[in-house]
Write a structure and sequence with these properties.
This protein has a single domain (about 1-254), classed as Rossmann fold. It contains 11 helices and 8 strands. It has helices at about 15-30, 45-50, 60-65, 100-110, 125-135, 145-160, 185-190, 205-210, 215-220, 225-235, 245-254; strands at about 1-5, 35-40, 75, 80-85, 115-120, 140-145, 165-175, 195-200. It is globular, with a radius of gyration of 17 Å. The relative contact order is 0.18.
Length: about 250
């Protein structure tokens, strides 16, 4: 079982979009047993991104020892399981983020056959973000290709090293390929991390956010979906699912 913290030094880099699509692809295309946990309890969006609008029992209840783990787990049509955080401000009362790691351990005990637990961590370096990082064993960094955001990743790396987390690498998200962006090589040199993939800023992603369905479901043959599949392949160490002739044709139309 692998517990991966998905982190960023700053909000707005598309980290939750990465978590939603990566988890969906691991479950649906690689047949992995996956649990996604929204560890960003102050501004939780993972449930919304996955189309879960009603969730009476959440991570907040687990953090206060008010519910059993199985009560807070919701199953997505892709097969991925999701532990959302509460959208209610009232549910922030009585939360101790240092309890997060014990909750993740409880999830591991309750679902021992899980392949991946993916933690959607809060951005930055506050108490909430640090709790998310401490609760994982590995870390995948997400950045956009702009210098200030990349510099924040350097800070994240120092924190991860102190926590003895294994680095998966750096994902560059929301790429436009314009002259104002840093190149993959420049970003790799600044962060001293392997760049494990890049995801384009595409209208398919914006459309999927509007529909509250991961882009790998709304547009499975799009360029962006294929980039997410490539990332999942790298993380699992397994070959990507074979692309059929019809997939290629539909991808061209996308």
């Amino acid at each position: 079982m692998r517990v991966i913290s998905i982190v960023s030094g700053k909000g707005g880099v598309g980290k939750t979009t990465v978590v939603a699509n990566l988890g969906t692809i691991l479950a649906s295309k690689f047949n992995k047993k996956v649990i996604l946990v929204d560890c960003n309890i102050t501004t939780p969006h993972l449930g919304l991104y996955m189309g879960i609008h009603q969730h009476s029992i959440t991570l907040n209840h687990l953090m206060r020892n008010e519910s059993e783990v199985s009560e807070a787990v919701y199953v997505h049509p892709s097969g991925a399981k999701i532990v959302p955080a509460s959208l209610s401000l009232n549910d922030l009362d009585g939360i101790d983020m240092m309890h997060l790691k014990s909750v993740v351990n409880s999830i591991k005990v309750t679902y021992p056959d899980t392949d991946f637990i993916i933690l959607d961590c809060a951005p930055g370096f506050g108490r909430e973000a640090m709790a998310g990082m401490r609760s994982g064993d590995e870390v995948l960094y997400v950045t956009t290709p702009y210098f200030p955001i990349v510099i924040d990743i350097v800070k994240c790396v120092h924190v991860a090293e102190e926590l003895n987390l294994e680095n998966i690498g750096l994902l560059i998200n929301m790429k436009k390929n314009n002259k104002h962006e840093l190149t993959d090589a420049e970003i790799g040199n600044i962060t001293e991390l392997p760049v494990v993939g890049s995801i384009a800023l595409h209208h398919d992603v914006l459309n999927s956010l509007h529909k509250k369905i991961p882009v790998c479901v709304t547009k499975p043959n799009s360029k962006v979906s294929k980039q997410f599949i490539k990332l999942a392949s790298l993380i699992t160490g397994e070959s990507s699912p074979k692309v059929t002739f019809l997939d290629t044709v539909f991808g061209l139309f996308d």
